[in-house]
Amino acid sequence: MTSERNDRRIQELRDLIAYHNHLYYDLDQPEISDAEYDVLMDELQRLESENPNGRTEESVTDRVGGTVNPAMGIVSFSPPVLSLNNVHNAEELQEFYTRVTQVTGDESPAFTCELKIDGLSVVIRYQEGRLVQAATRGDGLRGEDVTANVLRIRAIPAVLRQPVSMEIRGEVYMPRSAFIALNARREHEGQGIFANPRNAAAGSLRQLDPEVTASRELSAFFYQIRHAAPRNPALSRITTQYLTLKFFHEVGLPVEEHFRYCETLEDIYNYVDEWERQRDSLDYDIDGLVIKLNDLSKQALIGETQKAPRWAVAYKFAPEEVLTEVLDIEISVGRTGTLTPTAILKPVRVAGTTVSRASLHNEDILRDKDIRIGDFVFIRKAGEIIPEVVRVEKTLRRDNTIPFRFPDRCPACGSAVVRLPEEAAHRCTGGMACSAQLREALIHFASRDAMDIEGLGEKTVDLLLESGFVKRVDDIYRLKEEDLLALPRFGRLSAVKLVQNIESSKSRSLSRLIFALGMRFVGQRAASVLAARFRTMEALQQASYEELVDIPDIGERIATSVITFLSQPSNREVIRNLRDLGVNMNHVEVAGTESPGEKVLEGQSIVVTGTFKILPRKTLELWIAQLGGRVASSVSSRTDLVIVGEKPGSKLEKAQKMNVPIVPEKEFLEQMTKLGITPPL
Ligand code: IVH
User: Fold this and answer.
1) Among 222, 338, 358, 666, which one is least packed by beta carbons within 10 Å?
2) Residue 411 belongs to some domain of the structure
């Protein structure tokens, strides 16, 4: 990869990881599995280490994870509550082993191996044997005080069998059986269900009301002493990790029973092999194993990095791959005419969700993998949220299967299908005359971020196409109440409303209209740049390729697409009709400001944090982008402004420390209104 592409990928990964951290740690609502998260993190770590310039002092790879909910009371940790580095195969495990032997000077160090519980990390303090404080790990430096909640978990003793004072670490989890029962109950009661046991555990523990925690079946395992009262004879006898676990058991703390003392690397490999095979045999989720140098004084000698100890690693299990059958290969036609093959699968569960479709992307991928209808294939969800076909299990292939052939006619309209030499995709040449393309184009045109016509969603679009009232995008603006009343499921009220919504969409901004037209590669940002630069649709239609590529942010790809789209007679006709029907084609000037109203935030890097009351956060972010600003995910020295809502997170503190201007949501909206810019309420 070139270094520019590397940099871009690094930024993309950081943003993605920050996003998934937020979902996982703050909202307890992950969209991807831990294995998928690790794939992203590993790629980022690799790119950062290959490209030291790409490292900044604030990379997500250094951080332990989530933030804390200040409403819960905050506990500070010293030393920080660390995470673990990961290894994924025997080779990486051996590298870890060799490093430990080198640093300790011990040729054959012993290890204690444990199961890695997929739960929620907690830190608990016992004083004279009494539980006095419990906290979640939070971001590793500060966690949430969950003492009252933890006291309601039966598996965690409030009083130990010996009056020891120590701070310990463990994992709170929800047994699989309890998770299934809880979700069944919640589904029955019409409440949202938890994605997996880890989330259920986190959601149950991070509660302001301990009664909620008490009503959920949670359990815990403990594995580390973080601090021990000095001169306690019982504690000073604990010189190894193995003895730590034995001691916990003695004093009544729950310990995961399958830990093992391993004298050699061979022993560790055996432990890994055994558990790789039996990982599903327990009533709790494990996502790997933890290999810890046994001798605690040697652990102290080796020390830790900012994020993780050097004396331990997590051996992470490979992402789950599941075998299933390809029932069919379906071709769908997108908004821009791209034909996409999708494998229709016999439904299977993969990494926590049921999968019944997987995109096969394009002909090349399909041909390389030689996927045929009737084949048995392995499915996984690695790196992305989207399931993918890894490979065909050829030994199971039946005799009568035939290689899949891409159609040469569009399955929706019968027009010819072409594949341009420089493209991987096949494209239908039917344009708006293709019902599938028209359908997607209409849905996009009316969508929230485009012309925002409420009530004109997929279902209504389908009805309008079936009835023949709409044959082109501009036909939307010719619809009358009577037409809508003739459609099934339309009453007078909904017909009146939709016609009103269509009418009021005529005054949407030029940038929305440009975006709504659905030119390839022209997203919201490019659309707003084009609107601000050309100011009228007419001027945009007359723009030359050179003028377009001259604009910062408009590359060759976008310029070519704009020129191609606007030179097509059928598209020109649609635009002419839209104009005649009264759709706004001008960039609106804002009274009282010198600068073009829509670009007052040009070049500004803005961070938003907290819960927003006046505008939904997404709307606020889009609006900032429309005003020319860039919404950044984290505060840095380049941040120009931080807009805060209620319950802001650590970003606020960081902004305060770095002296970045901070404005509350309400004040920001007021300032904009003073400039004559109306918020998109
Ligand atoms: S040792 C400095 N042991 O896995 C000690 N962690 O991915 C580091 N975990 O943050 C942790 N089971 O929350 C350790 N037997 C175990 C574990 C375990 C689960 C969690 C822990 C840690 C995460 C790292």
Assistant:
1) 666
2) no
Q: Which of 300, 316, 332 corresponds to the end of one domain? A: 316
CB of 81 shorter than 6 A to ligand 1: no
Ligand 1 pocket, residue 224 CB under 6 Å: yes
Same domain, 279 and 176: yes
632 within domain boundaries = yes
Q: How far is the CA of 197 from the centre of ligand 1 (A)?
A: 17
Phi, psi for residue 600 in degrees, rounded to 5 = -65, -20
For residue 529, the domain's CATH number is 1.10.150.20
Ligand 1 centroid to Cα of residue 539, in Å, is: 60
592's enclosing H/E stretch is none
**Cβ 484 vs Cβ 497: under 8 Å:** no
Residue nearest to atom 15 of ligand 1 (CA): 116
Q: Is 114 in the pocket of ligand 1 (CB under 6 A)?
A: yes
Does residue 522 sit in the same domain as residue 437?
yes
SS3 415: coil
Residue 621 among known ligand-binding residues:
no
Residue 592: which pLDDT band, with cuts at 50, 70 and 90?
very low
Please report how many Cα atoms fall inside a 13 Å half-sphere around the Cα of residue 490, on the Cβ side. Answer: 22
Which residues are within 8 A (CB) of 40 and not within 5 positions of it... i.e. 6 or more apart?
A: 13, 16, 17, 20, 383
For residue 226, give the nearest of 177, 170, 269, 267 by alpha carbon: 170
Element of type H or E holding 16 = helix 3-21
The answer on 142 and 27 residing in a single domain is: no
Q: Is residue 441 part of a domain?
A: yes
Cβ of 84 less than 6 Å from ligand 1: yes
Domain range holding 263?
Answer: 86-316
Residue 12 CA, ligand 1 centroid: distance in Å: 27
**Residues 654, 620: Cα–Cα separation, whole Å:** 21
Judge whether 209 is annotated as a binding position: no
For the whole model, what pTM was predicted? 0.51
Specify the ligand 1 atom closest to the Cα of 116.
12
Domain CATH for 328: 2.40.50.140
pLDDT digits (tens, 9 = 90+) for 391-429: 998 888 998 999 999 999 999 999 999 987 777 889 998
Nearest CA to ligand 1 atom 6: 116
